Amino acid sequence: MIAPDESPYTPEETRLIRQRQAARSRIMAVLLVAMCVLFFAITVAKIGFW
Amino acid sequence: MTTVTREIILPADWRDFWALTKPRVMSLVVFTALCGLLAAPGDIHPVLGFTAILCIAVGAGASGALNQWYESDIDAKMARTAKRPLPAGRMDRQAALHFGVGLAGFSVVIMGMAVNWLSAGLLAFSIFFYAVVYTIWLKRFTPQNIVIGGAAGAFPPVIGWAAVTGDVTLLPLLLFAIIFLWTPPHFWALALFMKADYAAAGVPMLPVVAGQKATRNQIFIYSFPMAAAAIAPYALGMTSWLYGAAAGVLSVMFLALAFAVWRNPATDASAMKPEKRLFAFSILYLFLLFAIFAADRMLIS
Fold this sequence. Notes:
The complex is a heterodimer of chains A (50) and B (301). Chain A has 50 residues and is an all-alpha fold. Chain A is 74% helix and 0% strand. Chain A is rod-shaped and about 60 Å long. With 301 residues, chain B is mainly alpha-helical. The chains are: A mainly alpha (50), B mainly alpha (301). Chains A and B meet through helix 1 of A and helix 3 of B.
């Protein structure tokens, strides 16, 4: 049984997991910013401002 | 002594999500959709045009993800697909399903709200057609799988056209027909030299079910209506001689390669050079045909 404060992963596995989570978070951030820009551009284009 | 093996569940890499969208297939989808959009009469705001192409690309990615979600068992049995994220064990199936459904919903809703609901409806139907009609209903059960399933890949130029005009006329339907009739010779050429893979996976592709001779006959037969569909936009006065000449030359080359396939008696994949040539040329054929078509239409307008 694993104690609550004990990680089931080795330090190397933990590093790999954190690395992947960080990479996915960065991609999500980029995509969210891109979506904000796109929605803004769509709105302005639909209004006919451009 | 007991050996304990522990399975480590790693979060899937973002590159695996990208691979799930079948980027190479997506590139051809984007290209044909863009040609349909550029060839359509009328104007579309560049931002909305970009959004339409983006939604079509994301919709194609959704189709690819849902296809790989459902087919991971087949993919694991074929050398060509065994390294995909699901059969290779780099991602769990539920993540792939959620990703596919999410992309599909996102692409259709944005297309409807930003561009128009006809193109959104066509996009939704094309995703449904690929993920459900082709992947779930046809692929495992009939050698006609890619004949009917080819319709899924034929939708993008129609969607691109509908994004601009808000309707579907004869010309986009001809573009649909070109890709629809191009798909069987394209995939059957591949299936001939990958027959062993398909047979091992239990996929009833035509060479596995009907044999190589029958497949070669079908490739040659299908090439004629495909060539007729390719020349039809010019014959019906919808393009200039530029497209007509290109379609004629390219189609004659396609027919010549299909004829070489028809004459090839080889049963071993290593002796199937004509099949490999036809498969490679078929991609170039579609690319050039649509590029020249779009250029021709833009010159006319």
